[in-house]
Structures are given as structure tokens and as C-alpha cells.
Amino acid sequence: MKVLKLLLILSLSFSSILNAKKNKDINNAPTSWRSKKVKNHTGSRSVISNKNLKENANQNIPQSLQNVPGIQVYDTLGTGTNFNYSVRGIRGLPNHSMRLNNIPLYSPY
């Protein structure tokens, strides 16, 4: 019985060490869209630069996001104050959010 408990404790501690290493790797994401890791990534990304904002004369963030492929912006109330965002490939996931400088763009309540 003691051997079984010892094996269980060792296996749990080993798995927590492996998970800690995985989490450490996740936190090393590139912080700039200009980095080589981002440019060589096989996924897609869209960058809205200051030049794009000036050329398109966007009045707000939802207008500028409508120019990004795969993003649809819906004005739910028709007043221009409550927007919902739809991203192609992310269907109804409750945990996704749109953020600008880590500030939520809308509240789902």
C-alpha cells in the first residue's frame, strides 16, 4: 500500500513538472508582429497599421476591423454602440474575446 501511494505521488509530481515546462513554452510568444517567428508562422494574421487607418478614414475600431478578411462586425442595437464580432473559424466559442491593448472591445452582457 505504501509503495502504491509513493508511486502515485511520484507520477503526479512528474506530470506537474511536465505541465510546468509546457506552460513555460506557451508564455514565450512573440510580442511584435514584426518578429521572425510571426512572419514565418503558417497561420494567417492581419495588421491594421496607422497608415491603413488614415487611408480608410475609419471612425472607430469596428469600421477598421471590417476591412480584415474573415471578421464580420454586427451592430446589434442599430445605435452604433453595441457591436458583436464574428471571426471565421471560431464558431460560438464562449471564451474568445476581442481586445485592444488587452482591454475588451465589448462586453457580452
Automatic annotation (TrEMBL):
**Protein name (Swiss-Prot/TrEMBL):** Iron(III) dicitrate transport protein FecA
Q: Where in the cell is it found?
A: Cell outer membrane
Location (main, coarse): membrane
Supply the Pfam families for this chain: Plug (PF07715)
Q: Lineage of the source organism?
A: Bacteria, Pseudomonadati, Campylobacterota, Epsilonproteobacteria, Campylobacterales
Give the PANTHER family listed for this entry: FE(3+) DICITRATE TRANSPORT PROTEIN FECA, IRON III DICITRATE TRANSPORT PROTEIN FECA
Q: Which Gene3D superfamilies is this protein grouped with? A: TonB-dependent receptor, plug domain
- Membrane topology classification: Multi-pass membrane protein
**Keywords from the UniProt entry:** Cell outer membrane, Membrane, Signal, Transmembrane, Transmembrane beta strand, Transport
Q: Which residues form the signal peptide?
A: 1-20
